[in-house]
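Good morning C.,

I know you're traveling, so I'll keep this short. The sequence:
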Amino acid sequence: MNFVKMHGLGNDFVFLDHFSHTPKEEADYPQLAQKLCHRQFGIGGDGLIVILPSQVADARMRIINSDGSEPEMCGNGIRCFARYVYDQGIVSRNPMRVETLAGVLTLGLDIENGQVRGVRVDMGEPILKADLIPVLGVGEPVVGQSLEALGKTFSYTAVSMGNPHCVIFVDDYSTLDFERLGPAIESHTLFPRKTNVEFIRIDSATEMTMKVWERGAGPTLACGTGACASLVAAVLNQKTERSATVHLPGGDLLIEWGPDNHVYMTGPAAYVFKGEWLES
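The tokens, ready to paste straight into the viewer:
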């Protein structure tokens, strides 16, 4: 089984091209993800991304988390997806349209001397209705609501960018019990489908720093949908302007909440290596 490994700001993925090479038998992608993404016994990655044909767009992306669960979307993953399918000639259109469980997204490629330098993704409109996020919150939008975890009370804002996010603003990270709070909030009873958790420090009106606990993957170096949700939450809480740079452990993303109510994410996508998986 041939594969390519890519990353967006350190958020890393194993790619299988089942657009050009259709497997003889239908693959068990959740089981494959757990094997391939294991960092000691496999290739290693935050998730498995499969490139598939689409009836409604240029190509279809499936992403499976390292624990075998399937999220609706992945912002860093879709940038890598766009670069790969363009470089391999699978999709030559720019902008291109990609089908995901969160809908069909439009991606614009920044191409210089035939090389993809960055990808700008139209992430669509943020979802603020509680039952669509979903969150068992009070009022809409779910802004500044209370949540209790590990005996402490936090103020949170809930946003969906096709997948659920719980955004919590913090003054600093030195006293944050990230490794325990992340999983506790991810599986909190307020979130019937679990949630991604972002801890955000506001640095200025146009900059913020983010630590993320991803649903189904744990701590990652970057989360594109999380960065988008965090900007929306910051604007709703009157903490930033509608365009800001989000500093993540793996690098920076430019996030814009446009006048058309769409959120736009701009960032890089990089190759790591390619190889062949030998089933032992």
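Safe travels,
E.
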